[in-house]
Request: fold
Amino acid sequence: MSRRTLLLLLAAAGCLGDLVADGAQYYPDGTDSAGGSSTTAGTSMGSGDSVQTFTGEVPTTTLGPGSAASTTGEGPPDEGPVIVSFAFEPEVLHEAGSAQPVAVVSEDVVELSLWLGDVEKWAGPPPIAWAFEATSSASDGEYTFVLVARDGEGEEATAEAKLWVSLPASGTEKCQFEEDAGSGWLAAAEYGDEALVVAGALAKPALEATVWRLDPDSCQPQAGYPWAISQWTEAPLVVLPSQAVGLATDELGRMAIAANLGSGLKRRPYVAMLTPEGALEWEIVGPVGQTYSGIAAVPGGVVVVGEQLVNEAPPQYDGLVESFDLEGTKLWTDTLAAPLPGDDWDDGLNVLDEHPRGVAWSEQAKTVMVVGERYALAKDDKTRLRAFSVQYSAKGSLTAAWTSDGLDSTDDGLVTVTRCGEELVAGGWIQNEQSARAPATRWLDLSGNGEQKRRLDALEAAVLQGLACDREKKFTAAMTDPFAAYAVGYRTSDDPFLYKLELPSTALRAASCDARGFCAVAGLQGARPWARVHHP
Reply:
């Protein structure tokens, strides 16, 4: 058998002859390529890298080393390597996603290198272990790649392939979900590997904590969902009404649900772990007088935050933080009450409330960050509602605390916190005396201090309820005022909005982004649970 007879398939991506047809079918036409700001991409990737993200300006089509002519046919046995075919699958990207270079070469090829202009993107022996990743409309453009094949004697062959990228503007709707089987709302959203998971409450007719798993591309509920607490629980203490208030995906891919049972001052906290199919792994019902408001996955388990009722007339609360391992065993619990580290005053009668609202794991600091609102004594001796944060070690030791001192307003608070790269960023509100509240975003340092870098948006009477960060470190914020909601995008503290969508008759509670960069906001529209997914 001649060495020209045996060919190597360098990427198992499907039939090469159907590349263009398959790509056109998977990525529909008719999108808007405008919008999105540009950033500079990395200049080089070593042979150990498998993915390159493109978010910069449209590249030039300068070819790499060697001739620009493609070699696609067989030659005499001793005339060097042959590239039979080289293309991208798909050849056109109409939304955020990846395109795989696919090549067929002769069996004597021992090394390949892939070039974009004069930058080598990947090099190594067959097969090609690299993919182009388009993350937003900043990736738009025509890309010309050159593949260089070398045999063991150093002889080379080259071929080129083009990739076209035209993505919708940031904030363009991808799909919407609305539950039409009953009234209710969504309070939490979390992307998993195979679904957008949302949780809240649904009345059919009684109000129950409910979870949905939505297809990430169509927003349609997956088979078996919605799934209500009465369908999965085994605990006799689970009573109506109930509402899910927090959601996390643990390291095993399971769904952790935080909820509250009952009503008024007799509510109980509830946490459950479900498989992706909705089967109950474990559940715990807490005592009367406690409630939950948020949950986060941490290494080896989950952490929930909420409140502990300490007085009924009038109702007064201390903060509550609890940790559970992967099997549902409670590892530690802590009650938050003044004085906290940094306080220069005491609450001897315990009349000043603490309200933890959100929680996240800091991978950089290896700590649990809790944010919320607390009443504190200000310099004018008045009681002010202030944003605060506390940090815990993985074993439950309180290591740091920060309370706002009214730098931006007389009162402020934090409602949510998310991880963005190595940073933790929190969202909430500010209010000056009797004026209406306005949204605030705070970048927290390693000690939880949010005063150094912040963003204040002039949306009167709105509160930032949900915050998420995508792979380009762009933020999606879910903001709500008494009459409407806003889904907005921005990059940092002083940038203009990338998009600002006003959603009448809507209230938003949560936001989440997936690994591709698509982001969702969730809440209710009218009286129905509702979510919207938009392009990055």
